[in-house]
Amino acid sequence: MKLYSSVFALIGFMAAAPVFAAEQTVTFSVPGMTCASCPFIVESAMRGVEGVLQVSADSDTRTALVVFDDAIASAEDIAFASTSAGYEAIILDPKS
Question: What pTM, to 2 d.p., does this model score?
Fold first, then answer.
């Protein structure tokens, strides 16, 4: 009987796990964006990460604003995708 209650507790926790997931918004510094076509490449690379919902890159401010589901992706995954495309992405402090 003890085993069954443990199994039910585990199943209940797994079912509730998605409730704890949330949309996150992170701003990245992308200092390598120096031309008008750079934001399109950065946006494409970041959008390629599963869980990314929205990306807006700006070559004037050299930043990218990304909204993603933190149950599926992480800010580090998104930064890695941009860096792999040739544009280093640095997670900015939310207060900056």
Answer: 0.75
Is 29 inside a domain boundary? Answer: yes
Which residues have CB under 8 Å from 26's CB, separation 6+? 65, 66, 68, 75, 78, 91, 92, 94
* Buried b or exposed e, range 5-36, using 16+ CB within 10 angstroms: eeeeeeeeeeeeeeeeeeebebbbbbebbeee
Read off the CATH number of the domain in which 48 is found.
3.30.70.100
Q: Name the residue with tokens 């941009």.
A: 82
Query: Which amino acid would we find at residue 17?
Result: A
Tens of pLDDT, residue by residue over 13-58, are 555 445 556 899 999 999 999 999 999 999 999 999 999 999 999 9
Q: Which domain holds residue 85?
A: 21-91
